[in-house]
Amino acid sequence: MRYATRATTSARAGRTRPLAAATLVALFLPFPLPAVCAAPASASGVPAAKAAAPADSPQLSRDDVRKIIEQAVASANHTASAEGLRSGPGFVPKRPTRMVVAVVARDGKLLDAFVMSDSWVGSQDIAVAKARTAAFFSSNENALTSRIIGSLSQPGAPLWGIGNSNQVGISGSQQYRNGIITFPGGVPLYKNGHLVGAVGVSGDAVDQDEWVAFAGAAGYAPGPDVVKLGMTPPAGVPTIP
After folding, report:
1. CB burial class (10 A; 0-12, 13-18, 19+) of residue 150?
2. pTM
């Protein structure tokens, strides 16, 4: 069964609450999915490609996903928003970030997302794309963040133009693809030495986004035999009590 959830902000009391699983279908798909279906086809009619992972590879459980999101949201509540966004010069106390946190499986399927109160609407799509970027270009042997993809995709760099890849229609449907993001905030997730997905965070300056993403990924770091690129939280991100 193909399912995932997102979350939205309640207009009452500024609370944040999850939506039913069916809302993801309306958000990312032009038509409802049946309970069981074949691999999605691209616009050309070719079955969509999926990440090749051994059948016995570990996966993210519901408890894993819940833990990752809770860790990220807790960090967001204690991370100061970048000056000039939610916090201005001389603001005391500093205001916390308001993030969207998304968790995807290795093949890009959205497993769950959480939208904090008053977060940017545009960050909902970006958070998913950040997570997918980290998952799509990591493996059991290498772990890299969306920051690294960004660094390598500047004009004249080896990956210039990669931002045009992984769009809907060639290798996946809306359920698995919405483009990639070439700036920080996407971090891969590992269990027992295997890549199992990624977390993406959006809602503030990119260092704040990445800081919160790494907090969400705590406990799901790559093993010692995995080549790591950008797998260090940014320095100098201010926190608040």
Report:
1. buried
2. 0.76
